[in-house]
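Chapter review. Work through the record for Putative DNA mismatch repair protein putative membrane protein before attempting the end-of-chapter questions.
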Amino acid sequence: MYSLRKEQLQFLKQTLQFIEGEIFRLTGDLKKLKTREHWEYPVFVRNHPLSIDLDLCTKQGFLGVFDTTVTDNGFQIYLHQFLQEKSPFGEFKPNPISVEQILNQRNYPFQLMRKFLVLDGEPNEKFVLPQVSQNSDFWKKRKWLRWFFPIWGMFSPLYILVGLLFDLPLIPLLILLNGILFVSYRKESILIWKEIKSLSFASNLFKKTFIFLSKERKITKQMLKRISNLGDSSELLVSPLPHLILNLLFLWDLWKIQSLQKWKQNFLVHWNELQNKITTIDSILPLINFGYLNPDANFAKISDDTKLNAESLVHPLLSQSHRVFNPLPVMKPGDLMIVTGSNMSGKTTYLRSIAMSLLLVGSGAPVLGKNFETPKFQIHTLIRSQDSMEDGVSFFYSEVRRLSSIIQNANGSNKTPILFLDEILKGTNSKERFIATREILSVLREKNCIVFLTTHDLKLTEIPWAKRYHFTELERDGQMDFDYKIREGVSSSTNALKILKKEGIPIRNEADT
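Structure tokens for Putative DNA mismatch repair protein putative membrane protein:
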């Protein structure tokens, strides 16, 4: 009763922490969430261009804010599928129907996420849920022992017991033979004990999840109970002397190895089916959670048509009180949208809103917007370049290398390349920047790329095939006010000097401008 009560209290505590996190996500109070540090992500993920440009791995980045995975494999698949990269466990094929079906079942998403809570887990901790393999050479190498040890394992303790009562001979020799036999398979049995402990540990951690997702709960409970009981036996390995005595008398390890073999014969397929199901659902739990917290989100239409457009969209990390929805005009391969506007007016956020929406679509999640339609796409961003003193790479050269990589990756792709460029080639003079940017955009057009570009260089808006949009600020009582609404045409306002003056930096020759 005490143990049951303790488990119930732990589950309630974890549920309370989970609900508090959900409230923080809903209210946009993301700083109170216990998310991962940037360095806690795999190197590949935190150095990925999309992670850098879209702030995916920051303390308040999307990957951490909505991460509700609990298995290590599920976490890795989640990261790779969101970055549109091939998973280390095989190629990921987005299946929005599975996410949509779960979200359509009223409170089922919440109950599902509660069943994935791990009682002993810390925030952001991931656990291994192993697959079961039948491939074991232990008995193949010792076919004779497999049939001999049950008889010998029962005979030796009986003989020792009777021998001690009636002073029979050969007891030391029998114990010596058992000891030699034990030493011969000791290394391999230790590895099998590790497998038993791993399976038992996972069965106890994910007991609620196994049972919740199983269609044959009676069999599942039997499976979990047997491997858990077998795992309890592994506690004796902590005490070498009792472990040794049991093997000298009963060949104890062999009995347990045989028990594991029988368990695998009965439950291997059932365990692996549920393990795959748990890992698959775990990898999309963050996407399910996002859709659950945003019931107004809609699933996009991925069509064979090559146009990209939306009636409205917004960045998924903006709190509900700060969301400003903007349309996405129809964009087709070869199209270029140039977005101008004053500082802080919303240009870069607009680009990130489109890019984040595409990542959500690509991973099978709904988007915050209406009538989002996209072709099969390949996304590239160049929003935040980094120099490197260690590698001797300047800011400008870093941008050039990234642009070259983007252009090369656009070659021969059966998906429409969609590029997001924010103030590119900032590290050079205005004359050469205009010439280089114009030529780069021409090449991207020839490769049928859809390009979104923000710039303060109004000369670029003279490119004839460009679609021109802008953001601006409004003057209210002598103060700058932003409505973050996109408008057609080229921006005619600037606010750099106003911002400098507001922060106390004197502008002595403002009239010269």
